[in-house]
Structure to design on (413 residues):
């Protein structure tokens, strides 16, 4: 697939053709899929990589001294190198395959937090964190007696940066924050946060669930210690994802799951463990998932993340412009640069009713708290309706969404 036409511009219509699922009717209407922050659709290149692996190379990795096992191992470790390159890691050893962002963050909370944090240490989070970057820290804090602190969110949907300096005291041992908010679309200044955290000796974790498929990421430029993301939000298979950890910090961490393949030697009394990343991948991993994720990365890289981000920005600003035509709309999040996510509330209808109304017309939105209950509470809302885009979406689909929302405003009023 090469969809470049006229120099650097991308043939987006041809790109869309790569996604078979988009070509269908839902409730008698052409599908409009605007739930990409929940999960993205998969291009043929990824479906084909999964099929080819199972049809030709399926075997367990790192174990068998036979041809299929060698091929599977080569593809699996090749996928690790692809992920490392995609996020600018210094080496493939810094990439742990996980089931996704949630598992990556739990790994850090349990293995790193369990060893290096003590009672009264402070874990700094923000008010805009997804439950996946909140609940694992609550569990840890309760277990060891650590304290949680939060950077507040302002009315404009950005973090109150003046308070960050006051909150980042030497007691803070970890600052974990999201790259892009899944409810507000806010893009946080990751490198600046990491620099500030480093100046007080705090370790940093970036939740890149909503950033990894949309924006260029370079963990060395970010200067972060950990970064977590999910494959299924960037054209890859569900159950695939990764944790980046700086080699030094990963190798200082104890394993979190015990089992096959993560050991060097085992006696009945005790075990010695492999180095990272294998130390953190007990049991048979999601081999096909890793291979599918690498195919997704190859696909995204052919389009290019700067082009994807530009396309996101076009769709998002067009949506905000057209939302202004609708009655009783409140849009959350920054008015300037933001990710491809627009959360809103319509006076006339509850988010669940609005989402159901849209579904009957073939439009997939998400309604609810988006695993952001504290953030919804901060804005005094039970939830929002959310449209989230990816590079196969079009302005014509947004026009159709506006018509549906206008009908909804009339219907519910
Ligand atoms: N947000 C959404 O619709 P998993 O489920 O592990 O792949 O990703 C969790 C996660 C972590 N951080 C952020 C910022 C996220 O947006 C998500 C997933 C989905 O917004 C499902 S609730």
């Amino acid at each position: 697939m090469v969809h470049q036409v006229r120099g650097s511009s991308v043939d987006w219509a041809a790109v869309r053709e790569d996604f078979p699922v988009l070509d269908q009717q839902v409730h008698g209407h052409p599908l409009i899929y605007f739930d990409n922050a929940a999960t993205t659709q998969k291009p043929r290149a990824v479906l084909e990589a999964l099929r080819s692996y199972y049809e030709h190379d399926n075997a367990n990795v790192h174990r068998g001294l036979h041809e299929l096992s060698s091929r599977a191992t080569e593809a699996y470790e090749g996928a690790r190198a692809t992920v490392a390159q995609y996020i600018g890691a210094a080496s493939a050893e810094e990439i742990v395959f996980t089931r996704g962002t949630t598992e990556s963050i739990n790994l850090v909370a349990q293995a790193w937090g369990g060893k290096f944090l003590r009672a009264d240490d402070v874990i700094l989070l923000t008010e805009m964190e997804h439950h996946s970057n909140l609940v694992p820290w609550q569990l840890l804090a309760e277990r060891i007696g650590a304290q949680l602190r939060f950077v507040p969110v302002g009315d404009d949907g950005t973090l109150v940066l003046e308070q960050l300096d006051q909150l980042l005291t030497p007691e803070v041992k970890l600052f974990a924050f999201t790259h892009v908010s899944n409810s507000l679309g806010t893009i946080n200044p990751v490198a600046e946060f990491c620099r500030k955290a480093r100046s007080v000796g705090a370790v940093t974790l970036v939740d890149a669930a909503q950033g990894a498929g949309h924006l260029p990421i370079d963990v060395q430029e970010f200067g972060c210690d950990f970064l977590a993301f999910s494959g299924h939000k960037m054209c890859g298979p569900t159950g695939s994802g990764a944790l980046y950890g700086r080699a030094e910090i990963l190798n200082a961490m104890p394993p979190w799951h015990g089992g096959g393949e993560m050991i060097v030697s085992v006696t009945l009394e005790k075990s010695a463990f492999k180095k990272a990343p294998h130390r953190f991948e007990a049991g048979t991993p999601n081999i096909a998932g890793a291979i599918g994720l690498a195919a997704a990365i190859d696909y995204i890289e052919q389009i290019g993340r700067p082009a994807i981000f530009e396309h996101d920005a076009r769709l998002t600003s067009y949506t905000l412009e057209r939302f202004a035509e609708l009655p009783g709309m409140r849009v959350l999040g920054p008015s300037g640069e933001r990710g491809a996510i627009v959360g809103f509330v319509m006076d006339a209808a509850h988010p669940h009713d609005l989402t159901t109304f849209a579904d009957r017309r073939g439009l997939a939105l998400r309604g609810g708290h988006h695993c952001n209950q504290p953030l919804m509470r901060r804005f005094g809302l039970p939830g929002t309706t959310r449209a989230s885009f990816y590079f196969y979406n079009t302005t014509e689909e947004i026009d159709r969404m506006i018509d549906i929302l206008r009908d909804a405003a009339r219907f519910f009023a």
Q: What stands out?
A: The chain has two domains: 4-41+304-412, 48-301. The mean pLDDT is 96.
